[in-house]
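Hey everyone, long-time lurker, first post.

I ran two proteins through the pipeline my lab uses and got sequence/structure pairs for each. Pasting them in order. The first:
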Amino acid sequence: MAKVSLVYISLSGNTASFIKRLTAYLQEGHADLEVEQVNIKDLVKEGQDFFAMDNQFVAFLPTYLEGGNGVDSGDVEILTNDLAAFIEYEENYKKCFGIVGSGNRNFNNQYCLTAKQYSQRFGFPLLDTFELRGLQNDISRVGDKIAELYRL
């Protein structure tokens, strides 16, 4: 049985909702997968130390930016930096299959920009994106991609 690790940070609850529904989808439709959730916000809040991942994982990142327009006047990541610190810790980025970004399409060029920046920064692919809490078709699309990654 393959262990699927979903590493995420959720501030407003949208990403946490997506992860909860994604976990249920993976457990119901892919019985050969064991799902582990790693909520970075909870680790930080509880004062737990970061740890080296012992298996490959998929990261999930909402978009929280300040300043600029994401194209020519820059931007600054806010509130989600702890996920980057976890990915950097003990070279966890080497075990990351890729990242899934979430955001609000109303922000145009800044939609899922942080996830795109992580992809470039750490050298892993942007696997997919979804808006806000995601729809059921987002859950099944992302879930099937993840299941396929763990079967390779």
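...and the second, right after it:
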Amino acid sequence: MVTSRKSSARQKAAEAPGLRERNKQEKLERIREAARELFASKGYAETTTREIAERAGVGTGTLFLYARTKEELLMLIFAERVEAVQEERFRTLPRDAPLLEQLVHVFEGFFRLYAKDQELARMFIRELLFLEPRPAGERLHLERTFSARLAGLVAAARERGEVAEHIDLEMAGFNLFALYITTLMGWLSGALGPGETWRPVLERALALQLRGLEQDAVPSGRSKRRRS
């Protein structure tokens, strides 16, 4: 009997961490869903953290364990979606296509995501770019991971002979991300118009950037003189 009790206690102790983790994930998903629903129905500005906590069925103290502000709640909602889109786009990448086509394929997934709720997307991009340094870990993770994967596309294109050997891959990834985010901001602000007006703008910007990566591009410091 004593042995049986001890065995049962050990089993419960072993199961406890897994149960706690499941409970934690369930609360996180409830908070995410509550924030999504309230942001969509009331608007981001009008929604309070107290309302989100009530909708999720948790106390405000519990809510603040996951996110201290509405801005961080917005990051919780979108970070998961952004990572999912990133994985899907790179998984379905046309491997034999030119670099320009691959880049447009990747970026297209994000424009489709943000088209579903442009008002909330504008808030997310603003927070993504201008979060205070203290809670910026998730933001930096998203940006750096994405830029690194773009640099990986450039590296693969270099292996195919599309890109010159001297190209700085890290900076190339940064530049491509910058072109994407600038076009995205212009599109979300309405400056580019509705629908897929982002596509020709982004394609032209990327094509111009990639011409500087071609094999016959002249490295910095060795540029040809302009004709007079």
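Reply from user beta_strand_b:
Welcome! Quick read of the second one: The radius of gyration is 23 Å. Confidence is low (pLDDT under 50) at residues 222-228.
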